[in-house]
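Here is a protein:
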Amino acid sequence: MNIRITAEAVRQYALASKDVADIHLSREAAAKAGYERPVVHGMYLMGLAQSLYLADHREMWITSCAMKFLKPLFADSVAAFDFKAYDGGEVRVTVTAESGEIVAMGHFSVKGRP
């Protein structure tokens, strides 16, 4: 599933999470840190992955989660979220940038809603 993550979505997440670090909001700060554009919050990516999965699996409930961030994902780019479900309630997710680079990998445990 491909999702465009806009600079506006990053800004809204920054305000809601109170993580308003310049690297997420300013091209200049991102450039000073060696990045081409502001960087998407890792926790935003993890929450988005969970939301996307649950939107297609409304009967499920997430009981735990973990994600490893491998490379930055930049604001105003498209991210591909790929989910693989396994027996026992484990779901693995891979997040890939437009460049084809894997930017994050993780997993969460799911069970049927109570």
